[in-house]
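Async update (no meeting this week)

Hi team, since we skipped the sync, here's where things stand on the single-chain job. The sequence we agreed to prioritize is pasted below, unchanged from the tracker. I ran it this morning and attached the output directly underneath so nobody has to dig for it. Comments welcome in thread, and please keep replies under the output.
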Amino acid sequence: MAKERILVVDDEEDILELVTYNLTREGYHIKGATTGEAALKKIQSESFDLIVLDLMLPGIDGLKVAKSLKSNPRTRNIPIIMLTAKGEEADIVTGLELGADDYITKPFSPRVLIARVRAVIRRVSEEPQDETSVLRIHELEIDPGRRSVLTGGKPIELTFTEFQVLWILARRPGWVFTRGQIVDAVRGSDYPVTDRSVDVQIVGLRKKLGSFGKYIETVRGVGYRFSENP
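Output:
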């Protein structure tokens, strides 16, 4: 059974109870808070392995809570899953830029919630990935040292920026990257990287990857992620 400690922050009692009930059934130790202020106090006095954080909170909202946690060396590494209402795309982007690990839109199914929680906890518990090791996903092989890509054993010619975008996404499968995060991570002089040029790079990358292009998924209104099982 899981033993991780999770703080659930939501001002809607029924949502708080739903999340608490389902995660407790999975073996997680759950604490709850209905305001941002209460959440920050609990985090100061207790340790947590994950925070499920509603964005729309009275007083200190979820984005301010996330910003506070990520600016504090003691709490910056605690993973955060944001709970959002549909239509809050700008808030989702802002939250991810602040360092949140994932998001769930309301209404949501308990099964999706549990799957997302498991995935985030699994990611953060893994050892840091060797930035020089060859990455193999099914028949896709990415070698950061040689800056080469093979699909089904056949080499694919990518530009510097296309390779960077693919490497950024593929080394963290399942993670949602905003366009801004991709821009910040790409380093190169052969292409003027902007938010919108990321979309152009993705189109070109998918075309060159052929059937493997489906691994790069668009997260509408937010950005992109790499899926091992598209």
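Quick observations from my side:
Residues 110-125 form the longest helix (16 residues).
The chain has two domains: 5-125, 135-226.
Reply here if anything looks off.
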